[in-house]
Design goal:
Blueprint (H helix, E strand, L loop, with lengths): L5 H39 L8 H25 L13 H28 L3 E5 L4 H26 L2 H10 L1 H14 L9 H18 L4 H18 L14 E5 L3 H4 L9 H20 L17
Antiparallel strand pairs: 1-2
Length: 304
């Protein structure tokens, strides 16, 4: 039996250790500064969390994004980590890819809701709420979701994902980040195994968009539209207090078909729609000759 020289394993192990420590340090600094920013905001401005749903969602999203920005600046100028600001193309390119990501989110959310309706896992129930009341609710909520999606994508698909990809390759880094993203939703009402599986699969889609030339804006556009389409249809998100007037996506049948308390994101319809999108992405990357695909299959090229 041929033994692999210890020296051959030494460099990859050291690189992995450095990457893990860097990510842990990044998360610690992010948490410290985000809590500091939120605490100072309450002292100087007041308790934004008691100002209603919209102010709470927008405030937490903006302050989280500010915490990420401060963390990135520290890592860039004190730690000489250039990758903290990777993934942001020029403005015109970013806007174009945000729209492309949004279109992908629209198609996947539409497919998920259509499949769920076809399987009788839910139905759209229209109430007495008029159009002005509906618009007064969903327009500001859309702005809040826009900010919240930015914070989540910048955090999960920013520096940590790129650092992992430099060691594990894009595919396995994307999968691991999906598992962590699913773990972050375990405390949401109705969270179960199906929820976690669907979030991991969906995270693979978003992470794949992150590795396109559109970078974070492409992932941000997808995440925002994916959430917003569900809100527009009255579906439940992993948010408390959202109650769209005039329309409700009422679950019916088993939890497997409807998604139950968590919403259609936890349904088999979401699973089917996401797998179809992942197949399309895998074929796309293969046809373009991309060897280090951002999916956990094929050859990994860590550090490329």
């Amino acid at each position: 039996m041929t033994r692999v020289p210890a020296a051959r394993w030494g460099v990859p192990v050291r690189r992995a250790g450095v990457a893990v420590l860097s990510i842990l340090g990044y998360v610690v600094v992010f948490l410290v500064f985000t809590m500091l920013v939120m605490g100072l905001t309450k002292i100087l401005v007041g308790d934004y969390e008691s100002g209603g749903l919209f102010l709470e969602l927008a405030g937490e999203g903006l302050l989280t994004a500010l915490g990420i920005l401060i963390t990135n600046l520290l890592f860039r100028y004190l730690g000489q980590s250039r990758e903290v600001f990777q993934g942001w193309p020029a403005l015109r390119t970013s806007l174009g890819w945000f729209a492309k990501g949004g279109l992908a989110g629209l198609l996947m959310a539409g497919a998920m809701l259509s499949i769920t309706l076809a399987l009788r896992g839910g139905q759209l129930v229209f109430g007495d709420g008029d159009l002005p009341a509906y618009l007064r609710y969903v327009v500001p909520l859309g702005g809040c979701l826009l900010v919240a999606a930015l914070a989540e994508e910048w955090l999960f698909r920013g520096y940590p994902l790129m650092k992992l990809a430099s060691v594990l390759g894009r595919g396995w880094a994307n999968l691991l980040m999906g598992v962590l993203f699913a773990a972050a939703h375990l405390g949401s009402p109705g969270a179960n195994l199906m929820v976690s599986v669907n979030i991991v699969l969906g995270s693979l889609v978003v992470g794949s968009l992150r590795f396109t030339p559109g970078g974070i804006p492409a992932a941000w556009g997808f995440h925002f539209v994916w959430n917003y389409v569900q809100v527009l249809c009255g579906a439940t998100l992993s948010l408390e207090g959202v109650d769209v007037p005039g329309v409700t996506f009422a679950p019916s049948g088993s939890t497997l078909l409807s998604g139950g308390v968590f919403g259609p994101e936890a349904s088999v319809g979401a699973t089917i729609a996401t797998i179809l999108v992942l197949v399309v992405l895998a074929v796309h990357f293969r046809r373009r000759g991309i060897r280090d695909v951002p999916l956990p299959l094929g050859k990994s090229e860590a550090g490329q």
